[in-house]
Amino acid sequence: MHESTQIDLRSSIKNKIIKDIKKIRGKHAPISEIVDNISKTLTVEKLYDLREKDKNCFLFIVKNYAKTPKLRYFLAITLANNSSDFLVQIAKDYAIKNDLKLIQYSIFPRMLRIQLLLIKELKQFEDYNNFLEKLTIIRRKFRVKLDKIKNLVELI
Fold this sequence. Notes:
Yope Regulator, Chain: A
């Protein structure tokens, strides 16, 4: 990614998204990703709660394992407040079809709750609204599928 694109992304996020948004304080667990069959760790620098503005959304600013870009930005939406292997199996297809990542992460570590998050990396600020809409639609489909499963179980 070009340096100017990274600077534009950083300044756009700072001025347009997190200007009046509450930062979630405290230490946050790192996020890992697999690159060339090797697990790489991305340290969470800052985590912002976008729920006042965009329902169920968070913005992760993570320190990259490589030199460039120095920081990476991930837009996340909560699929479930309490994650489980069953919920991951249901959401896996949505993540694969839409080139998204699915993580189990504790946004608020003191609550001892691991949430199921669907995340997408922002590489250009222009992608923000598109990704937000895509994540919201997938969350809605996921919730409908969960309701169908709940109704089937109630019938038994």
